[in-house]
Amino acid sequence: MEKVLFDIKNHKVLPQEICNITDVYRDSNCFYRSLSLYFTKDGSYYNFFRQQIYKSSKGNLENHKEIL
Q1: What's the mean pLDDT in 36-60?
Q2: How many structural domains comprise the chain?
């Protein structure tokens, strides 16, 4: 997972063409499951992506105050 984070942060993951539609489990984590599926080809790492986004947004709360 560290390599995935490194690639995302350094923009080494190239956008893929959307050619297949894949259903993910419909719960409150479906956005994170989609990210996990896109970047790792496995939707089971959704909790990792959720935690990373939470940590990033928590650290940048000043930048997001206008949204809140």
Answers
A1: 88
A2: 1
